[in-house]
Amino acid sequence: MPGFVLKTTLENGLSVIENPRPSRGCYGARLGDKKPPTKGDEPCDLIDANLVVGENF
User: Fold this and answer.
1) pTM of the full structure
2) How far apart are the C-alpha atoms of 1 and 15, rounded to whole Å?
3) What's the first-to-final CA gap in the chain, in angstroms?
4) What's the CA gap between 23 and 19, in Å, rounded?
């Protein structure tokens, strides 16, 4: 770790992780199908549903 980063970290009362654990991968990949819908998913789902209804009309 460069000296200025360590100095700034310690000056601001933050701790330094000496031996970090390896990453477990992307958060989204761990959630899989259990991922909660985002705010943008609802409008997209409504538009998609209306497009399907419009095709059958």
Assistant:
1) 0.34
2) 13
3) 64
4) 12
Q: What span, in angstroms and rounded, lies between the C-alpha atoms of 14 and 8?
A: 9
Calpha distance 46→54 (Å, rounded): 12
Place of tokens 């789902």: 45
**Residue 10: partners with Cβ closer than 8 Å, 6 or more residues away:** 16
Tell whether the model's pLDDT for residue 57 goes beyond 70: no
**Two tokens, residue 21:** 């654990």
Which positions ≥6 away from 45 have C-beta within 8 Å?
Answer: 37
